[in-house]
Amino acid sequence: MAIGTDRYASRADTLLFLACVGLSIAALSLPDQWRDPLAQGLRQSVLAPFLFLQRQTEMLAAARYRYDDVVAQRDSVALAATFLPELRSENARLRSLLGLGQRLGSGYVPAEILHQPEPTNPLSFVVSAGKKEGVRQLSAVVSPEGLVGLVASVDEHTSVVLSWAHPEFRASAIATDGSVVGIAAPHGAEGPKVWLLELQGVLYRTRVPNGTVIVTSGLGGVFPRGIPIGTVIDTAAQVQGWGRTYLLRPAIHPAELSHVMILTTPRPAGSDLRNAFTVPQDSLPPGEPPR
Amino acid sequence: MRRSDRYRYPIIMTVLVLLQFTLRSHLGGDRVAPDFLLLALLIYTIRAEPGKSAAAGFMIGLLRDAMTVVSFGAGALAHTIVGFASSWAKAVFFAEHVFVKGCLFFAGTWLRNFIILAVSGKLQGSQVAWELLVWSPLQGLTTALVGVVVLWFFRGWLSPRRPGALGMPA
To answer: What distance in Å separates the CA atoms of residue A280 and residue A283, rounded to the nearest whole number?
Structure first.
């Protein structure tokens, strides 16, 4: 210890240091059968509380991470659950569309409605079927519930559909029993009854009870006979001339749809599609016999 | 030793030891995170005599070896040398500047890692170079940084009072 050890460290310090170094070298040269029990003994005695502390800290951190994962999974499930009714509804609609396809037999093209965010979307919308799929202008567009509209223009793979809510829409209509004949048209573009249809030109002497199901008459050659248009719910406010006007609750609102069917092949004269559609069961008021 | 040091000094040492087993694993990679246990030893060596520092280093090193039995005894030897050298160097230079203490923490960390690598002989070639030139300096840096913060924060509690330094009577 020539470098001033006596000045900066006492002889006892030096001896203690040398002893520690010697013990360290001895530890280094310990055989495995001695070293492992010694290390194990230290871990299970002096180090035990510290290792326990470290383990608890790690568990705490892991629990925090797991909590975040659980929260994320719960949020994902909650988000998925919000879409569940919509998926069920769409599934049911597709199933009913398949049922309609079986009942119609042939001469139709299924198409998806390409909804747009504009507020006028229910009046006129684009569907994913066009000329290539056999769609022609003025083809009838239907859903399992009834009439949706007609094809206004046709592109290669898309078509523009004019729904019954469009102000220019008209369809020749008739009651299911043939007792009432008129023209179905949108009721108007203002007021609370904006999304209703009206049956115009009904003979003044003819009374149409509420709940009467109105279908297409087949006159004019655009719509086949028997497609449900709506159900009579009231008389319109004004009675014009020698005719009466009735309010109809539409069979289906265009905004509710995601898929439609376009009737591509002209139906033979006299054919009636009434049985192909789902006529609402509550169309007649309670106590009133079906017509 | 001041009367109040009887409580304050062990508290700081205990806090550093607890930080080693609780906080350290959350401060980044194991090779970069500050070594609170070594820092406690180095802070202890600032005040203690070289012999006691060497003994404390031996104890800490032996306990650390028990947790990593790859080279049992290497840690004890490294911490013994670092403890003694740190205490001796502090007595030689006796600088109270915080930067000098930071350098002491940095050098102590790097020297400890160097001795362990040299004695254990488990790493070779580029691994040793990476450890000594990249990871050890980074760990020394973080340890020194934490050490400086601790010294500054507890500067009233950790001011050196070592009788006998520079040959002064105890």
So the answer is: 5
For residue B55, being part of any structural domain is answered with: yes
Establish if B169 belongs to a structural domain. Answer: no
Residue B168 lies in a domain: no
| pLDDT at residue B170, rounded to an integer | 35
- Tell me which residue has tokens 């230290």: A42
Judge: A24–B58 Cβ closer than 8 Å, yes or no: yes
Q: Which CATH number covers residue B137? A: 1.10.1760.20
Instruction: List the domain boundaries for chain A.
Output: 10-46, 106-283
Whether A156 and A163 have beta carbons less than 8 Å apart is answered as: no
Q: What is the ipTM of this complex?
A: 0.83
Q: Give one DSSP letter per residue of A167-204, joined into a string.
A: TT--EEEEETTS--EEEEEE--SSSTTTT-EEEEEEET
Q: Do A15 and B51 touch (CB under 8 A)?
A: yes
CB contact under 8 A, B119 and A28: yes
Look at A27 and B65 and tell me if their CB atoms are within 8 Å.
yes
Q: Chain A closest CA to B54's CA: distance in Å?
A: 5
Total domain count for chain B?
Answer: 1
- Write out pLDDT tens, residues B104-162: 999 999 999 999 888 887 677 777 888 889 999 999 999 999 999 998 888 777 765 55
DSSP state of B28: S
Q: Is B84 on the interface with A (CB under 8 A)?
A: yes
Nearest CA in chain A to B62: A24
Q: Is domain A106-283 classified as CATH 3.40.50.300? A: no
Give CA–CA dist A283/A250, Å, rounded.
Answer: 11
Whether residue A21 lies within 8 A of chain B, CB to CB, comes out as yes
Q: Tens digits of per-residue pLDDT, B27-85?
A: 877 788 999 999 999 999 988 889 999 999 999 999 988 887 667 899 999 999 999 99
> Is residue A65 classed as helix, strand or coil in its secondary structure?
helix
Structural domain including B44 reads: 5-159
CB pairs under 8 A between A and B: 116
Note the pLDDT tens digit of each residue in A95-123.
Answer: 777 777 777 777 888 888 887 666 666 78
Task: Specify if B20 maps to a domain.
Answer: yes
